[in-house]
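Please go through the protein record below and see whether the fold suits the sequence. Record follows.
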Amino acid sequence: MTDDLERATFAGGCFWCIEAAFKELGGVHEVTSGYCGGHVEEPTYREVCSGNTGHAEAVQLAYDPDVVPYSELLRVFFTVHDPTTLNRQGPDVGTQYRSAIYHHDERQHELAAEFIADLEESGAYDDEIVTELEPLETFYEAEPAHQDYYEKNPNDRYCSINADPKIRKVRERFAEKAK
């Protein structure tokens, strides 16, 4: 990673789907699927799926803030997942699928907290936003089979049903930022 790139970490359901959506954005140089927010060191996919590790499936982005600022990443994040469903996204249920922002510094924390407050105040959602806002302690990279999953498995039915709509939203709503 060059000195000009920053990192952001988001959890919004299955990491395959969130990864595919963020990869559509110009300025995003790398998206890595992984796990964070739990108590087990070096968790495996199977362990995280059990719901017993405390980890969320998450993605970590390396991005150029001069091309796509953190505030724009927040807009995309809140567009491609439902921040009002506790421990659930679509068909995926469990704490590992929770909505969370893992901030890397105080600036990210402040921007995310303000963004959520603005959404709540504007009534953007019918239900309360349940997105957790936590400092990133450790991000564990997922196994190689889970990296670039959508690209490697374009005909996967799960991806067709769950990732494709997120990708379409990014392409339509953020066309000026799309690759």
Strands lie at 6-12, 28-36, 56-63, 88-89, 92-93, 99-103, 132-135, 139-141. Helices lie at 15-22, 45-50, 70-80, 106-122, 149-152, 157-173. The chain has a mean pLDDT of 95.
